[in-house]
Sequence to fold (115 residues):
Amino acid sequence: MNITNIIYLILIALIIALSITIAVKSNQIKVLEAEKQALIMQIAQAESSIKLQNAKIEEMAINQETAESMYNENMKALQDKYKNLDNLSSQDKTCNEILDIINQNQKEFLAGGLR
Fold:
């Protein structure tokens, strides 16, 4: 064998080694791209979940605000009714009139009429 044949064999071996390396690296790139797509999907799902949780939190805040407002209205109505009772008492109303007002207030309360 002469030196040219040896150089050709070395070049062929080098080309084969580079081809194998390129094939392995190409396969690794495909695997990494698949992992990237999976991560992108997970991020999208997480963002969607966060948006849903934020919507639920906002809804809860609105519901709490509504409940507080209704509570305040009901308390004001009760205070007004008891002020009326105090006014009636101070004006020397009869016990029967006061009992009638109390009875009416109880009926409204039980019927949910404190709005």
